[in-house]
# Entry
Amino acid sequence: MRTVIGVDLGGTNIVSAVVNERGKILGKDKRPTLAHLGAKDVMLRIADSARSASHKSGIPWASHLGVGIGSPGPLSQKRGVVLYTPNLNWKNVHLVDFLQKELKKRVYLENDANAAALGESWVGAGKDETVVLCVTLGTGVGGGIILNGRIFEGATGVSNHIGHIVVDPNGPKTPYGNRGILEQYASTTGIARLAKEIRLKPLPGQPADARTFEEMALKGNRKAKKVYEIAGKMLGIGMVSAIHLVNPSVVIFSGGVSKAGDMLFKPMRKILEERCFKSHLKGLKFRLAKLGDNMGAVGAARVAWLHLPSSVKNKR
Amino acid sequence: MRTVIGVDLGGTNIVSAVVNERGKILGKDKRPTLAHLGAKDVMLRIADSARSASHKSGIPWASHLGVGIGSPGPLSQKRGVVLYTPNLNWKNVHLVDFLQKELKKRVYLENDANAAALGESWVGAGKDETVVLCVTLGTGVGGGIILNGRIFEGATGVSNHIGHIVVDPNGPKTPYGNRGILEQYASTTGIARLAKEIRLKPLPGQPADARTFEEMALKGNRKAKKVYEIAGKMLGIGMVSAIHLVNPSVVIFSGGVSKAGDMLFKPMRKILEERCFKSHLKGLKFRLAKLGDNMGAVGAARVAWLHLPSSVKNKR
# Structure
């Protein structure tokens, strides 16, 4: 049995999985990241998590051909370094070197959003599709573009920042100078912002967050429904731009805000039908991600499979 | 000497060129399209133009290995059919079949904007670049994305519609249902529309078109300068979205409106510097197209070079 280990390093959790060549998970570990412990301890936790996934799979450690890891960025893939990531408070962390020494395996690094998109394209909602556009509606809005099973990296590895598409040039300012970007509407942060803007307040004792407002909307609260309608419309505007530029065969949504379902996606579809060329909607599928919280780890495993030298993959 | 013929079919002119494997033009013909004559006569004019380019090159007809042709779309590349094109008033024209019979050569069809982008990437302003985003600011706004020397076609061949990026969700309506798209600001049509919007009138006896307004702006007319400033800003907004999504290594501008130079590009740059992540602007080049009106024909020739079977290319 040939296997690799895929690791999804998140701000909250580390998920590791032993994955075979067909994308099947044979063992899994999930543990809190505990980012406050600092880079070195988090890296040791990653190594422990990988070992634990291996242990649970019952497959001998020596059988794993390599390790793929998806990390928040920006990264230097070439040097195997996480340059900077606010979630973890990391700066210039030599993640690949550390893990190679610790695990005695080849380690391959990829941006977390790209890895997740690759996972869904490999064995999830984007299987057998040619041009996959993944859109994660989480704390922020991130994305990944997969072309014929390979990550589209752009010229310098920073493509797919779909959350930074301008949907209203006069919209609110972001901390980084842009205005009215998709992320300010269709993320959990965006939902909270919109609620504040239209003076929607949570019920007493509830936090003013997307989950609360989603529940309120589902129960029929008019203002809460309005928040999701605006978010859906703005998501639609952003998708019009992305679809005309990239012409995907499937768009895959994931992340907390995507759970709102029709409240969000109906107004999005309406905008798309009003504004897109028919040629761009023809045959275009919209799906929810299938792999749940395994998305990143499975994708990271695929990164390892794609990068392992064939001499290693074909060794008997 | 191995050569192919590249043909650029436009609403106004047909340009044909004999092109060698290194992108050098060895003979060229340019003649009016005369679209009013109808599809069949225009196709005969294309064939004549190709023969004339060959004649001027002094290279025997038999030496040309194939023909590439860039046509306005939408097309079916597979069937070699121009499905529909308002410029020429064509519907379901079997261009490839016709030319193969007429010219007795293999013929390869490509979208005109993609072909032009490929030409610039091959031997023009995008030479040796990994991710090239071409933006044509003409009657409309079109584009092409070239990845490592190959056209990015999207899932169904309709990617790169950069003119349809939404730059103002509440902007003016287009005939096809969208609103506030880049094309309504940064094309010749857009310039004329903006002029009307702010009540800029041409000098007596001058047409109310982009060329007139450009001249007025260059001579210091305040309102005309304002028109180009708005167009440049909106071009900036559209480019912010495109750059975050595609992460190009170079953006190449062509088309009539791009001749306005700094009047247009200064406000664009200002928006980009205000709104883009530094990581997305780092190393990113902005250039004007180099190949002039040969862009499409050279790109169409490259299409032929890329599609010719190696058995044909390597025949001695």
Remarks:
- The first strand of chain A starts at residue 3 and ends at 9.
- Chain A has two domains: 3-117+293-313, 128-289.
- Chain A has a mean pLDDT of 96.
